Amino acid sequence: MAGRLRHVATVFAAAGVAIGTLALLGGTAAAAGVPGPSPSSRSVSSTSAVPYGAAPTPHATASWGISKSYPPVPAQVLAVACPSSTVCYAVGRNNNGTGAILSLSSTSVTTWVADTIPSGTNQINAIACPSSTVCYAVGQNNNGTATILSLSSTGTSPPSWVADTLPSGTSEISALACPSTSVCYAGGYDVNSEGIILSLSSTISSPPSWQSDTGIPSSADIVNVITCPSTSVCYAGGYGTSSNGTNTVSIFSLSSTGTSSSPPSWQSDTGIPSTTSQLDAIACLSATACYAGGYDVSSDGIILSLSSPISSPPSWESDTVPSGTSSVDAIACPPSSAVCYAAAGTILSLSPSVSPSLASRSSISPSWQSDTGIPLGTSVDAIACPSTSVCYAGGLNNNGSATILSLSSTGTSSSPPSWSTDTLPPGTKDVGAIACPSSTVCYAASQNSDGSGTILSLSGGSWEVDTGIPSGISVNAIACPSSTVCFAAGYDSSSNAGTILSLSSASSSPPSWQSDTGIPVGTSVSAIACPSSTVCYAAGGSTILSLSSATKWVADTLPSGTSVNAIACPSSTVCFAAGYDSSSNAG
Q1: What stretch of H or E contains 530?
Q2: Which of 19, 90, 429, 466 gives 447 a disulfide partner, CB atoms 3.0 to 4.6 angstroms apart?
Q3: Residue 109 CB neighbours (<10 A)
Q4: 92 SS3 class
């Protein structure tokens, strides 16, 4: 039964910090989000900065150290919850087959600790924290029984968790929603392979206890998703197996929150198409505007929406999604927003023609749209949006030539956003990174037809080739802390060394660049981040470089055996670099 459950891991910044990181131990440097080494995943960021030419802060070689090691090493992170800016938890599974909960240290924002959890926990699937001191985590024990853990101590380091009291026969819990500190629902299945929903029955007892809700039909083999836009409105998705071997999907809605003597009850909603094979996500803009995503019997992605939330039971309908949409694995609806986004191999956005405030929309089928103006066969590898109405996207055309698309329209109530193709210099082969410190200043890392690297800059409605880029250069990443200060990182094949270029003249036409100094021979720089004009870090291989003057870099001290491919600094004194430690064979 457990093999039928599809876990979709969601990656958060906190999880990246937690698992195998380096921490900046000293110095005055910081950095922002950084591109990785692969052209298909590169990105850039820009922040406010001091004026170009300002005297840099005296810089001592920074020292890096391993912020935390975890025996055993967490092998899989399945969920993260951060109820506040200083309290975060990550859950999953260790590489030795035991469950794992990690938490930010109560004494240091650079340290994550392995929390104390009951022995015999096999895996933690989900976590919900309605407050900084109230959290629940769900999963399975080694003996095949389900477990729900509750946070029992937040004043110790590491925090400790206890196993709650569950109804007998509970086999696995994989879904969890807690709209308040005293209201929680968990979904899974029991020893009879029947779907179940448990609700929190007592938070006063120690440990807390849970009860079996009513109304889940025996035809449901598992309840795998739950969302609760309020304490009295919840929706859950599940599926069973029909006589012909196909899945029968159901959506359940909370029909009664229960009383002191009876548990909550659920009802089966109507309108779910018979061709639905599985639902993996449910999200709600409000109590009356909810969306469920998954795939149908043809493995095509689908999205369902509430068509009549005020009826009893509520009714759902199929939304319109672009042809060829892959399975919808996640849906996000930002708070206080009228927009939802669905992850389905690409990103779909909810058409603005649909108002989420409508209580009944039986005559309106919400539509999820693909933007227009993108030529057939285009592969987009990088995007930058300095404002809500100005965006640029770079990549490849189907003929192998480079392309940069610009947002020509943000869309209307009846049409999706549209993009247009910008004019590029002849012979431009690829665009792998774009940085836009303002709406009128953008730089793109590109490649010429002969394989040499180049940098393009925005000039009106077209792009031009900048000067000062040495031959044999390939550019992997660009960071622009201001409109006049930019750095580009890459590799110089002629000297077999990493290279960093800095913008020497932003006012010339075209702009010009210069080669910085201090980069050791053999270094390959794949990521760079600069939160200010005088504070920058560049990473690649076994090296982290820091900016010591306007155009000079120095190699920082790293632990032996460390290989780094990404770097980020949330503040001027806290930095993290992610990579691989060959000495421990772990991230």
Answers
A1: strand 527-532
A2: 429
A3: 18
A4: strand
Mode of pairing for the β-strands spanning 170-180 and 183-190: antiparallel
Q: Which pair of structure tokens corresponds to residue 310?
A: 């005020």
Task: Take residue 70 and report the two structure tokens written for it.
Answer: 């975890």
Specify burial of residue 214 (Cβ count, 10 A radius: 0-12, 13-18, 19+).
middle
Strand ranges of the sheet holding 183-190, from the earlier edge strand across to the other edge: 170-180, 183-190, 195-202, 209-212
- Is beta strand 330-332 parallel, antiparallel or unpaired with respect to 341-344? antiparallel
Rg (the chain; Cα; Å)? 26
List the structure tokens of 372: 């227009």
* Amino acid occupying residue 212: S
How many angstroms separate the first and last alpha carbons of the chain? 31
Cβ–Cβ under 8 Å, residues 523 and 478? no
For residue 74, which of 58, 97, 53 has the smallest C-alpha distance? 97
Alpha-carbon distance of 94 to 122, in angstroms, equals 9
Which residue from 468, 475, 469, 520 is spatially nearest to 495, judged by alpha carbons? 520
- Find, among 192, 112, 186, 193, the residue nearest to 149 by Cα: 186
Q: For residue 117, give every residue at least 6 positions away whose Cβ sits within 8 Å of its Cβ, in sequence order, or none.
A: 99, 100, 101, 124, 149, 160, 161
Whether 227 contacts 177, CB under 8 Å: yes
What's the token pair of residue 76? Answer: 């899989």
Digits of tens for pLDDT over the chain (587 positions)? 433 333 333 322 233 333 334 445 444 333 333 333 333 333 333 333 334 344 444 555 667 776 655 445 566 778 888 888 788 888 888 878 888 888 876 666 656 788 889 999 999 999 999 998 999 999 999 998 999 999 987 767 788 999 999 999 999 999 999 999 999 999 999 999 999 999 998 877 788 999 999 999 888 999 999 999 999 999 999 999 877 777 899 999 999 999 888 999 999 999 999 999 999 999 988 888 899 999 999 999 999 999 888 788 999 999 989 888 889 988 887 666 667 778 776 778 876 554 443 333 334 456 676 777 878 778 777 788 787 778 888 888 878 888 888 888 877 767 777 888 888 888 888 888 888 888 889 999 888 777 778 899 988 778 998 898 888 888 888 888 888 888 988 888 777 778 888 888 888 888 898 988 888 877 778 888 888 888 888 888 888 888 888 888 888 888 888 888 888 766 666 677 888 777 776 66
Contacts of residue 165, Cβ cutoff 8 Å, sequence gap at least 6: 205, 207, 208, 209, 210
Peptide bond into 158 cis (omega under 30): yes
Q: How many other C-beta atoms are found inside a 10 Å radius of the C-beta of residue 34?
A: 27
